[in-house]
C-alpha cells in the first residue's frame, strides 16, 4: 500500500504582474505540479486581472506605440474588485504555511507591496525568479522577504517544503539564501543543474484562471501556452542576464544550456492541446533555433502530431532556407528577431551582438521570401548611446523587407547584466536602483541622451521606420504634439494594419 503523508502543508504562490495579457508563467505552473505530485496543497494569488497600473502594462503600451497590431482585449476579470480585500480573503481562507513569490526585477516592488498588504502576516516568504537569482542580497534588504532561491527552483523549493512540513531545519538547503533570526544570512551553494527530461510534462496550467490562457498574437486572440524546449542561451549579449547563469553555476555555456528531448516536448504540447484547448504554441526559448539539423528534423517530425500554429524567437544567424521551409510546413506562423541596435560597431562592441547589418538584412529577406510574418525587437537608451547612434536603428529597420511590426523598448539595466555594470560605472544610475520594465521611461541619467529625448524617440519609432522620409518633419512635430501623433498613428494603422496577418497552415 502506498504511504500517505498525514501532515498537511500549504503553499500560496503570489504572482505580481502588471501585464494584462502576458502568458501564464511556466515557472510557477511547473513548481506547482512538482509540489502537488509530492502531496502539498497549492494556492495562487495572481494580480494580473486587477489592472494594477495600466501605465506599466507592456502589452497596451506596445499597442499605443504601434509595435504590435491592435486587438480586442480580453476583459480584466477583477478590475472592479478591491485587490487588497481579495488578497486577504485568499490568505485567510487558504491559510498557507509558506508564501512563494515569483517575479522579475520590474515586478519585485509590486510583489513587496502585495506582501505588505497581507494583514497579520507571520508566514515565511520565499522569493524566486530572475531578480532573486541575480540580486539576492538586494532582495533581502526588504524585511518582507525571508528566503531567496538563487538559480533553478525545482530542487530547492521542494526540499524547503519537505523540511518545513516535517519540522526540520532548512538553513542549509542548497540554492537558498536564508535570513536567520539574528538577521544574518546563510548563503548556500546552488544545487546541481536540473535534467529537463526529469521534470513533469503536465505543468499545472489549471492553477490559473482559464481566461489567462487567452493572449493576442498579430491582432487576434488565441488560447496559448508557453513551452520550454531549451534552458539557457549560448550567446553573451551584454544587456541580458542569461549569460550570468554560466558564471553562477561555474560551467561553460555549452553545459549550462540544456535541451528537452523532443519526445518530452511532444508529450507536453499534446497535453496542452488536449486538456486546455490550446490553439497556438509559444516557444519561450531565448534562441529557439539553437538546433542541429538532426534536432530540427526531430522537432518537425514530432510537431506533425500537434498541428497548431506556433511562434518562436531566434537570432538572424540561425536563419537559412532549409530550416524555414521545414518549419513553415509544420506550422511556423511568426518569428521575433532581436536586432536591438542599428549601429553595427556600437551593437558589436557594447551590446555584444556580433552579426553584421548586411547579415541581418539577408536573413530577414529569406524570411520575407517565405511569406512568414516577423517582427523586430529594438532598444533605445543604452549606456553611452547618443541620439545620432539611435537613428541608425531606424535606418537599419527601414532596410528590412516585409517586416510586420517593429518594437522599440527602453533599455532596462537589470541586475546580473554587464550593461548594468557599465551604466553604474559611468555614473548614469545608482548602484542599488531596482529597474522598472522596458515599457517604462529610461532611468539612466545620460547628459548626451536624457530620458525625455529617449521617450520622444521611442514613441515615434515605428512611424519613422515605415513612413517615407519626406514625412519626417511632421513626425518630428509629433514628438511633442499628441494631436499630430494621434493623427499619424491612425494613418499608420490604416496603411499597415488594415489587412489581417494570414497563417499559411
TrEMBL record:
InterPro entries (UniProt xref): BchE-like, Cobalamin-bd, Cobalamin-bd_sf, Elp3/MiaA/NifB-like_rSAM, Methyltransferase_Class_B, rSAM, rSAM_horseshoe, rSAM_sf
GO molecular function terms listed in the Swiss-Prot or TrEMBL record: 4 iron, 4 sulfur cluster binding; catalytic activity; cobalamin binding; metal ion binding
Presence of the UniProt keyword Iron-sulfur in the record: yes
Cofactor: [4Fe-4S] cluster
Keywords: Iron, Iron-sulfur, Metal-binding, S-adenosyl-L-methionine
Domain B12-binding intervals: 8-171
Gene3D superfamilies in the cross-refs: Cobalamin-binding domain, tm_1862 like domain
Radical SAM core domain ranges (all copies): 219-474
SUPFAM superfamilies, per the entry: Cobalamin (vitamin B12)-binding domain, Radical SAM enzymes
One Pfam family, short name: Radical_SAM
Source superkingdom: Bacteria
Keyword Iron: yes
Name of the protein in its database record: Radical SAM protein
Provenance organism: Candidatus Zambryskibacteria bacterium CG22_combo_CG10-13_8_21_14_all_42_17
Amino acid at each position: 500500500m502506498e504511504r500517505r503523508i498525514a501532515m498537511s502543508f500549504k503553499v500560496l504562490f503570489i504572482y505580481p504582474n502588471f501585464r494584462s495579457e502576458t502568458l501564464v508563467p511556466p515557472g510557477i505552473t511547473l513548481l506547482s505540479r512538482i509540489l502537488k505530485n509530492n502531496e502539498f496543497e497549492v494556492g495562487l494569488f495572481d494580480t494580473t486581472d486587477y489592472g494594477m497600473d495600466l501605465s506599466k502594462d507592456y502589452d497596451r503600451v506596445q499597442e499605443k506605440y504601434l509595435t504590435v497590431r491592435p486587438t480586442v482585449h480580453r476583459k480584466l476579470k477583477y478590475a472592479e474588485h478591491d485587490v487588497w480585500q481579495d488578497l486577504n480573503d485568499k490568505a485567510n481562507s487558504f491559510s498557507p504555511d509558506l508564501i512563494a513569490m515569483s517575479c522579475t526585477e520590474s515586478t519585485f516592488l509590486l510583489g513587496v507591496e502585495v506582501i505588505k498588504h497581507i494583514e497579520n502576516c507571520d508566514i515565511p516568504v520565499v522569493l524566486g525568479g530572475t531578480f532573486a537569482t541575480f540580486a539576492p542580497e538586494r532582495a533581502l534588504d526588504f524585511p518582507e522577504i525571508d528566503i531567496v532561491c538563487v538559480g533553478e527552483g525545482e530542487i530547492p523549493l521542494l526540499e524547503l517544503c519537505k523540511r518545513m512540513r516535517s519540522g526540520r531545519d532548512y538553513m542549509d538547503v542548497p540554492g537558498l539564501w536564508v535570513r536567520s533570526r539574528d538577521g544574518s544570512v546563510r548563503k548556500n551553494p546552488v544545487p546541481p543543474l536540473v535534467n529537463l527530461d526529469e521534470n513533469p510534462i503536465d505543468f499545472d496550467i489549471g492553477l490559473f484562471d482559464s481566461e489567462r490562457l487567452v493572449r493576442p498574437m498579430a491582432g487576434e486572440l488565441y488560447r496559448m501556452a508557453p513551452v520550454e524546449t531549451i534552458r539557457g542561451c549560448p550567446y553573451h549579449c551584454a544587456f541580458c542576464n542569461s549569460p550570468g547563469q554560466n558564471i553562477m553555476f561555474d560551467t561553460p555555456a555549452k553545459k549550462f544550456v540544456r535541451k528537452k528531448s523532443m519526445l518530452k516536448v511532444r508529450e507536453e504540447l499534446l497535453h496542452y492541446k488536449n486538456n486546455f484547448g490550446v490553439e497556438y504554441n509559444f516557444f519561450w526559448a531565448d534562441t529557439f533555433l539553437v538546433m542541429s539539423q538532426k534536432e530540427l528534423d526531430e522537432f518537425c517530425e514530432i510537431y506533425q502530431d500537434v498541428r497548431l500554429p506556433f511562434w518562436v524567437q531566434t537570432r538572424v544567424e540561425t536563419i537559412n532556407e532549409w530550416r524555414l521551409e521545414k518549419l513553415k510546413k509544420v506550422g511556423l506562423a511568426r518569428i521575433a528577431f532581436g536586432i536591438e541596435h542599428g549601429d553595427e560597431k556600437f551593437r558589436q562592441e557594447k551590446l555584444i551582438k556580433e552579426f553584421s547589418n548586411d547579415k541581418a538584412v539577408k536573413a530577414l529577406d529569406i524570411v520575407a521570401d517565405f511569406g512568414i510574418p516577423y517582427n523586430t525587437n529594438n532598444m533605445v537608451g543604452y549606456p553611452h548611446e547618443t541620439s545620432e547612434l539611435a537613428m541608425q536603428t531606424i535606418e537599419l529597420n527601414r532596410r528590412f523587407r516585409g517586416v510586420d511590426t517593429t518594437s522599440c523598448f527602453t533599455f532596462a539595466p537589470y541586475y546580473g547584466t554587464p550593461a548594468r555594470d557599465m551604466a553604474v560605472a559611468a555614473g548614469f544610475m545608482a548602484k542599488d536602483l531596482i529597474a522598472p520594465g522596458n515599457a517604462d521611461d529610461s532611468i539612466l541619467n545620460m547628459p548626451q541622451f536624457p530620458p525625455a529625448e529617449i521617450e520622444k524617440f521611442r514613441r515615434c519609432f515605428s512611424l519613422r521606420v515605415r513612413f517615407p522620409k519626406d514625412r519626417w518633419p511632421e513626425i518630428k512635430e509629433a514628438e511633442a504634439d499628441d494631436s499630430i501623433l494621434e493623427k499619424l498613428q491612425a494613418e499608420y494603422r490604416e496603411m499597415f494594419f488594415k489587412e489581417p496577418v494570414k497563417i499559411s497552415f
